[in-house]
Write a structure and sequence with these properties.
Length: 617
């Protein structure tokens, strides 16, 4: 790779990459994101490579392995360009047919197309899939156009032009002003004004100054940051370089969760390639601006995502938070001014510099600009990554993009904001999703986790689950969090096991208040959210558990029984499934018999019965 020494050389390289790429050429774009790899994408990629080679098609067909385009539910995904044909759930056994039919003969293979389960409509092109139609993918769309291990792909799409614009056409103050005007708010949880943080670090005394990219992402079920880092690492690196220039920093770190090996690998390759091209390092393009970026692999604890804990961990100490009497933007890493931003926040920066704050401000709501990537998971038909303009309603995200709840079940609640977010009931699906609206209903944006729950989820059990998770992740440094979470988990467990007392709700509220007011860091301070919102919106469920010793959703084992209804035709499906031998056939075509003594309430019979003959109460 040749070292570029001027903006003109970067532009010339871009032009030559684009010129040498024949856009009418066939390109097989295969998702190599973690989700698709888990579904066997590695074998699929190998099968495509060998098929294309054995047919002597190498000179006419490109194969591009990309990061995650979001529709993980249907992976492994293959998109054939230039037609933009989308094949989903592709297996190695489909490869020969795809090459001979679609690549060679131009025929569509119906079996591999996406069919909308709600309308039965087939979608040939990626753009016709309802999951994508309502999204505004400013950040994610490039994931499917870029091989993250090839910097040329990023450059071809205009990559690093924002950096050039910033360092050659704008002063650091002008860059900062543009980000301020865009009203960019941090995507890592709190929604802090990015420019304000940059400004504080810029103004703080002390040298050197550092920039950090937070790619820790410890929230269960969330994978936005991982997918951006895996799929388009240069966008975060370019954002960091622009930020470093504005702040007056020459050194950056990407703190990435060690459990994200692909993100670690791709970020490392991207840094190396950017250095080789002269896009990163000393005296970038002779501008006088130098910046080095290195990777630090995270300690593997949820709390390490918290800014002070992250910096301690980066320094090689135990990843424990400290009191923020002095902000990290003034005294952070090694006591030096340090600006920490989330991956998605950094990835927004090149867009703002290239297209301008005025353009950016048109997207989103009054106080939440731009788009937000959500990781939509749980009881929803289309799980995956969804990028939408701020302000889209929860209903549009879950029902239109997510395709609603599977198996005709009723939607009950949506948990936003990760483990310390809140549960929003179905009746509030109309709220526009932005930082402030989610706050108003007792939840939060967090880093973008969105967990959909249906009528078979018990809200008390959900609150118990999140509190147990946070209890396990608490660093234990301060008493309210260490002891408070333990006590809350004990109370919630008691309620789900039928030992709930009338005063428990009040106790939970009281403990929540104490924790919010006195915990040292955001983990403890926000931990009560799932408890408080589930009490606020689902109090009757708590009362059913406490007063009636009943779990209305049929989840809490101690409070439910399984029985067989009169309409059971004795098909015996449940008999084969029951691990305890608790079900027996009494007489042909008559309801089966369930022995309560033997039943361990595993629910297998309920799941397998096709005629709704297993009753759970
Ligand atoms: C317990 C805890 C865990 C956190 N985990 C993350 C994380 O994984 N990724 C992240 O970007 N921010 C996380 N944050 C928020 C960060 O502390 C910090 O506010 C954020 O990275 C700042 O970036 P932003 O301004 O771009 O949002 C966490 C906060 C707390 C309290
Ligand atoms: S609030 Fe919890 S996680 Fe945060 S410092 Fe205190 S004990 Fe540790
Ligand atoms: S709930 Fe489980 S153990 Fe009980 S009868 Fe059904 S399958 Fe058997
Ligand atoms: S990992 Fe392949 S679509 Fe998400």
């Amino acid at each position: 790779m040749n070292r570029l020494s001027s903006p003109q050389e970067l532009e010339a390289l871009r032009e030559s990459i684009v010129r040498n790429r024949d856009t009418s050429r066939r390109c097989l774009t295969i998702c190599g994101g973690t989700g698709c790899l888990a579904l066997g994408a590695e074998d699929l990629i190998a099968a495509f490579r060998s098929e294309v080679e054995s047919r002597g098609l190498n000179s006419g067909v490109d194969i591009r392995v990309t990061g995650c385009p979001g529709f993980c539910e249907r992976g492994p995904l293959v998109v054939i360009e230039p037609e933009n044909i989308l094949y989903q759930r592709v297996r190695p056994k489909d490869v020969a047919e795809i090459v001979s039919e679609t690549i060679v003969s131009g025929k569509i293979i119906d079996r591999l197309l996406y069919v909308d389960p709600n309308t039965g409509q087939q979608a040939v092109h990626e753009s016709e899939v309802p999951f994508y139609k309502k999204q505004l993918r400013l950040l994610l769309a490039d994931n499917s156009r870029i091989d993250p291990n090839n910097v040329n792909d990023y450059i071809a799409l205009g990559g690093y032009s924002a950096l050039v614009k910033a360092i050659f056409k704008m002063s650091p103050v002008e860059v900062l002003e543009e980000v301020r005007k865009a009203n960019l708010r941090g995507r890592g949880g709190g929604g802090f004004a990015t420019a304000r943080k940059w400004q504080t670090t810029r103004d703080a005394e002390g040298e050197p100054k550092y920039v950090i990219c937070n790619c820790d992402e410890g929230d269960p079920g969330a994978f936005m940051d991982r997918s951006l880092m895996e799929g388009n690492p240069h966008s975060a690196i370019e954002g960091m370089l622009i930020g470093a220039y504005a702040i007056g920093s020459n050194e950056g770190f990407i703190y990435v969760r060690n459990e994200y090996p692909l993100a670690v690998l791709h970020a490392g390759t991207a840094i190396r390639q950017a250095e080789e091209c002269g896009l990163l390092g000393d005296n970038i393009f002779g501008s006088g601006f130098s910046c080095r970026i290195s990777i630090n692999r995270g300690g593997g604890a949820f709390v390490c995502g918290e800014s002070t804990a992250l910096m301690a961990s980066l320094e090689g100490k135990v990843g424990e938070p400290r009191a923020k009497y002095i902000h990290t933007s003034e005294k952070g890493l090694w006591e030096k001014p340090t600006n920490l931003n989330n991956v998605e926040t950094w990835a927004n920066v090149p867009l703002i510099i290239n297209k301008g704050a005025d353009w950016y401000r048109q997207i989103g709501t009054e106080n939440s600009k731009g788009t937000k990537i959500f990781s939509l998971v749980g009881k929803v038909n289309n799980t995956g990554l969804v990028e939408v303009p701020m302000g889209m309603t929860l209903r549009e995200i879950v029902m239109d993009i997510g395709g609603g709840v599977p198996k005709g079940k009723k939607l009950k609640a949506i948990q936003t904001g990760g483990p310390s977010g809140g549960c929003i009931p179905e009746s509030m699906l109309g709220i526009p999703v932005d930082f402030d609206e989610l706050d108003k209903v007792g939840s939060m944006m967090g880093s973008g986790g969105m967990i959909v729950m249906d009528e078979t989820n018990c809200m008390v059990d959900i609150a118990r689950y999140f509190i147990s998770f946070l209890e396990g992740e608490s660093c234990g440094k301060c008493v309210p969090c260490r002891e408070g979470l333990k006590r809350m988990r004990e109370i919630l467990t008691g309620i789900t096991e039928g030992r709930g007392e009338e005063e428990d709700i009040e106790r939970l509220e009281h403990l929540s208040e104490t924790l919010t007011d006195s915990a040292l860091c955001g983990l403890g301070q926000t931990a009560p959210n799932p408890v408080l919102t589930s009490i606020r919106y689902f109090r009757d469920e708590y009362q059913a558990h406490i007063r009636d010793k009943r779990c209305p959703a049929g989840v809490c084992k101690a409070l439910i029984t399984y029985s067989i209804s009169d309409k059971c035709p004795g098909c015996g499906l449940c008999i084969k499934t029951c691990p305890q031998g608790a079900i027996t056939l009494v007489e042909k075509k008559k309801p089966v018999l369930l022995d309560q003594e033997k039943c361990i309430k595993c629910g297998a019979c309920y799941d397998v019965c096709r005629l709704d003959s297993v009753i759970v109460k």
